[in-house]
Amino acid sequence: MNVNISMKSIGAVAVMALAAACSSTSSTGPDVAATDNANAPVSSIVAGSQEDLEQNVGHRVFFGYDQYSLSPQAQSTLQRQADFLKQHTNVSIQLAGNCDERGTREYNLALGARRAEAARAYLVSMGVDSSRISTVSYGKERPLDPRSTEDAWSLNRNATTTITSAGA
Amino acid sequence: MIRQAVFAILAMAIGFVATPAGARVKIDITQANIEPMPIAVPDFIGAQSDLTGLGRDITGVVMADLDRSGLFSVIDQRAYVEKLSSVDVRPRFADWRIINAQVLVSGEVRPTPDGRIEVATRVWDVYSNEQLGAVSFKTPSDNWRRAAHKVADFVYKSLTGEDGYFDTRIVFVHETGPKEKRNKRLMIMDQDGANPVLLTDGVNYQALTPRFSPTQQQITYMALFDNRPGQVYLFNIETGEQEQLGAFRGMTFAPRFTPDGTRVLMSMERAGNSDVFQMELATRRLTRLTDNPGIDVSPTMSPDGRRIAFTSDRGGAEQIYVMNADGSGQKRISFGEGRYQTPVWSPRGDLIAFTRLYQGRFYIGVIRPDGSGERLLTESYLDEGPTWAPNGRVLMFFREASPGAGPSLWSVDLTGRNLRRVRTPGDSSDPAWSPPLP
What we know:
Chain A is an alpha+beta fold. Helix content of chain A is 39%, strand content 15%.
């Protein structure tokens, strides 16, 4: 995996880079030791940006069918998001709840709201100020993967974090 | 701005033969097993030669309406023996009996002194040699399709005793573009798919779950925006004007008018939890009807205004619940396996239609408000969102027939046997049936 690290706050971002590297093998354990890595490759990703969030933290958590409870994996991703938000205090985010196509429109809009709220509540419990987080539900209307397969449905059951106002 | 003017069509009984008190031919549409009634519909006569084509066009629409109902079998015109010369002449019934017609519909299109057309129709019982009914509609000639639907409604009522549903419209979601970034706009069309017109531009939002007002040329729907919670809107079909129904921090969705048209039931989400609310349109006063940690969505009121059905997952998987109109007495009525969503109360009050999910398949079904008599009418990869014809005898819904197939509109009768695809321009979902047009 090609890990990108910004010029700013190299040490802290390196932690996330390691976490992201772990996630490439789909084991996103939170137990990544903080180490300075002076030799990490340098790129143009701006710390605290959406790209930083996506590449180095993880901007999506996934849910089971008709579920809105957070798996251990989702919790560790959200833990990293909380750390990211505590580090970049000017950043505000929106959490969008999404569903697979195996439900009705109306129910899925409600379920998507539950998923966004589950992620929001977790971030708040980790100390993120709730005023920095807004939520929205897209139900089954914005599938990430347009296919009608189990794999696609797993991807489409998510809460996706988007930076709405960026900080430095 | 969209102008969807609806011309009132005045119906007049026409004289000449008295309608008998008790018709001999009768279709009982409540019966489970109905043989379609053989019916002859010769081309409506043009009183002037330049009205011959219009007469033929009207006949085509009448025949298609009657055929789609599943209650009639329209006999091929090439088999007809008698050529009628006027709607006011008694037919030679033997000529219609010989082709096994039970009922004959005759008609004539005439010019009126004020430049409109008059469509006169008679319905005949071929075996008792009696007229079952006669009616005449006057309308501008470019409104001829509505006159044809009125004729079909008249035939339907003459033979079933129930109101027809042919002079109605459907509002639905017209879908274009890739699934991940779908354009969803409201479209309106006649019940038979004619005259489709886009109502919304769909530039900044997806329009979902439209529903007709029972009393006005008005629709309520949900606008799903980018980056802010979706909200319920009102849309005036005649003027194209629309307005957000209140302004709330949480999402408002799943709107549906009450049967008297004075209120909109909807769900509102607060801190991730959805409950059922009611908004009075005159005052914009919002009242909470459910307060439960489970998801409560898809409220629908009984036609007498006394009860509301909705979906809730408070007991685990989603099931249908019924409560009093003030929110008291909440009680589960569906107990089958799988998940029950989108209840819709019949305009007759006797049944609630729903979407059921079970073992990876979707079904449209009906259940009595007391929870008894559940019947499944359709099944596919995805069948969703039933809407009732105003006479409560036919349902329309949308279907994705197989994984990845685009959505299309379908109708089914309460026996489940008369399943038909509804013609639409392109992918379509979320149909809502209008009340009878004025």
